[in-house]
């Protein structure tokens, strides 16, 4: 390894980057278990080479906790472009520092840490503003730059459209720019809480801020996966007077009503969701959060258009939100939207004075020190949504369970051989039901 390698010498892919997405296998030949993608609805846990330090700023973790995110299902269904066979998935993980590069100063071997889901250099224009998800130097996808006009930052385990970095549904992971990407976990915070600071705790918080939720706001949330549930919890913490949740799964609605005290609307294909919302709040909600996204279609038109490639994203959910929100209300898009959509009701956006805000990928590092304190003091407790615990060997089955909404799964904790026993109050190890 040439410790003096400059950026130009580390360029991979279409665009220059400040670190390589590839990792260096260990000289010892040690292997690890990792979840790999091989095509639509085809993922497998396999033995692959374990990583060691590639660049001076790298940290290698022994993974002690991972999970499957609802957005991972887009990969599972091959709905995100630039996936390659054999990619290691997973963008939410915590662990114990196993190796550090010679330029790493803030963490040491043996530290318990949680990683941000994004790969961020810490020194570019956007990173210096705390907008780490928009890092200018870690994503080599020329295609994304052409599609969006500029690239967002790299993301662990989420295709070569966001850099092609190996993910953390594994026993080890290489973390570039470890000083910027890792948060130390206090002794009084178990992995089962710290893990979710990698993504869904800060992401849901960010979505609520982008929706301008304030004391007294009426909030409507489409989608009751983990992000939607956490958005509901944060909205209540922010002082929302009412939270109305929309989802096609009655079990998810019942779960939210039971654990959070929100109102629910079942969004089956025959339901006029806008009419149901207006029955509850005549002028419409002040704030809307889209935690559902592009995968969900109701009518035949968008189903066909997506199937034949005339659009990548359906506008049906968003058009419901545009019609439902009050005049001069705000819509926050935190669900994944990838490219193009047809039939967007742009006239209503303009005429109603709606603020439609793309929340982007959450800049995790901007929030996570404050949010760690809120987890520590009990202001935000993610425990209610952690329903299952599995072994890394079972991860492929977890994808299937989440995709099919079986066994009441909401959010899982995936353990490895490095994990501590389940903390008090959290699910114990179980076997998948598929």
Folded structure, characterized:
Pfam families: ADH_N, ADH_zinc_N. Belongs to the zinc-containing alcohol dehydrogenase family. Residues 56-187 form the Alcohol dehydrogenase-like N-terminal domain. It comes from Ascobolus immersus RN42. With 434 residues, this protein is an alpha/beta fold. The protein has two domains: 1-199 and 363-415, Medium-chain alcohol dehydrogenases, catalytic domain (Quinone Oxidoreductase, Chain A, domain 1), CATH 3.90.180; 205-358, 3-Layer(aba) Sandwich (Rossmann fold), CATH 3.40.50.720. 26% of the residues lie in helices and 21% in strands. It has 14 helices and 19 strands. The chain has helices spanning 72-76, 125-128, 142-148, 178-181, 191-194, 200-210, 226-237, 250-260, 273-280, 300-307, 316-324, 346-351, 364-376, 395-404, and strands at 24-25, 31-39, 42-49, 51-52, 59-66, 93-100, 112-115, 118-119, 154-155, 172-175, 182-184, 218-222, 242-247, 263-266, 287-290, 330-333, 355-358, 386-391, 411-415. The strands form six sheets. Strands 14-13-12-15-16-17 form a six-stranded parallel sheet, with helices on both faces. A five-stranded antiparallel sheet has the order 10-5-6-7-11. The protein has a two-stranded antiparallel ribbon with strand order 1-4. α9 runs parallel beside α11 (316-324). The longest helix has 13 residues, at 364-376. The protein is globular, with a radius of gyration of 21 Å.
């Amino acid at each position: 390894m040439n410790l003096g390698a400059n950026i130009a010498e580390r360029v991979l892919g279409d665009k220059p980057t400040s670190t390589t997405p590839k990792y260096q296998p260990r000289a010892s030949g040690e292997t690890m278990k990792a979840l790999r993608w091989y095509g639509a609805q085809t993922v497998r846990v396999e033995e692959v080479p374990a990583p060691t330090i590639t660049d001076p700023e790298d940290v290698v973790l022994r993974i002690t906790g991972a999970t499957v995110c609802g957005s991972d299902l887009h990969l599972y269904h091959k709905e995100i472009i630039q996936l390659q066979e054999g990619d290691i998935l997973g963008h939410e993980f915590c662990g114990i520092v196993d190796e550090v590069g010679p330029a790493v100063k803030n963490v040491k071997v043996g530290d318990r840490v949680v990683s941000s889901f994004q790969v961020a250099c810490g020194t570019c224009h956007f990173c210096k503003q705390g907008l780490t998800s928009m890092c200018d130097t870690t994503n080599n996808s020329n295609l994304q730059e052409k599609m969006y006009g500029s690239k967002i930052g790299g993301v662990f385990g989420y295709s070569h459209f966001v850099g092609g970095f190996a993910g953390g549904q594994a026993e080890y992971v290489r973390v570039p720019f470890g000083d910027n990407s890792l948060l130390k976990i206090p002794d009084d915070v178990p992995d089962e809480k710290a893990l979710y600071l990698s993504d869904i705790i800060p992401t849901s918080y960010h979505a609520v801020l982008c929706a301008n939720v304030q004391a007294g706001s009426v909030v409507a949330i489409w989608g009751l996966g983990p992000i939607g549930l956490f958005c509901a919890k944060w909205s209540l913490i922010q002082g929302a007077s009412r939270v109305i949740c929309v989802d096609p799964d009655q079990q998810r609605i019942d779960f939210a009503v039971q654990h959070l005290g929100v109102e629910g609307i079942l969004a089956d294909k025959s339901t006029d969701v806008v009419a149901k919302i207006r029955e509850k709040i005549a002028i419409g909600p002040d704030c809307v959060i889209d935690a559902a996204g592009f995968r969900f279609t109701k009518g035949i038109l968008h189903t066909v258009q997506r199937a034949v490639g005339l659009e990548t994203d359906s506008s049906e959910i968003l058009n419901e939100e545009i019609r439902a929100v009050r005049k001069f209300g705000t819509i926050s898009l935190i669900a994944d939207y990838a490219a193009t959509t047809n039939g967007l009701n742009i006239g209503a956006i303009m005429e109603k004075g709606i603020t439609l805000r793309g929340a982007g990928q959450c800049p995790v590092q901007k929030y996570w020190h404050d949010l760690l304190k809120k987890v520590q003091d009990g202001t935000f407790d993610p425990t209610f949504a952690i329903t299952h615990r599995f072994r890394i060997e079972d991860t492929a089955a977890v994808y299937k369970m989440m995709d099919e909404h079986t066994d009441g799964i909401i959010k899982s904790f995936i353990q490895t051989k490095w994990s501590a026993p389940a903390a008090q109050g959290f699910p114990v190890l179980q076997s998948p039901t598929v």
